[in-house]
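It is worth pausing here to work through a concrete case rather than discussing structure prediction in the abstract. The textbook approach is simple: state the sequence, then state the predicted structure, then interpret. We follow exactly that order.
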Amino acid sequence: MKFDFRHYCLISLFSNEDIDSCVLVDNDLSDNQLVRAEQLLKNTRDNFDEIIKLMQGHSHNWSIDRIGKTEKTSLILGISEIMMNLTPIKVILSEWTKLTDKHGSSDGAKFVNAILDNISKNNEPL
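Step two, the predicted structure:
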């Protein structure tokens, strides 16, 4: 099965919670997908504090510590991708929801979808 850049970014950040030392895991990405992965990780590093503030502000009744690791990682990267404004919002929400469902749970996927949707609607432009 061939994975896209989001999958490898999720695995990379999930495996190494320190965004400053996070590097892309071994992958079989095409050159174009590799560029997108590196862009996403760089944007996440550069805007990490703002991403966390957005996540905290939109995850009502959930402290960051209560959010599962898969969901938290998906939210961080999903918010970062929304900020980059290179992909339609519907695609971003769909892809991060699918990845969360695959690596976490369907309830977690619904949570990620709701938070990303809320952020995309209430913070334009990011």
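Step three, interpretation. The chain has one domain: 5-122. The mean pLDDT is 91.
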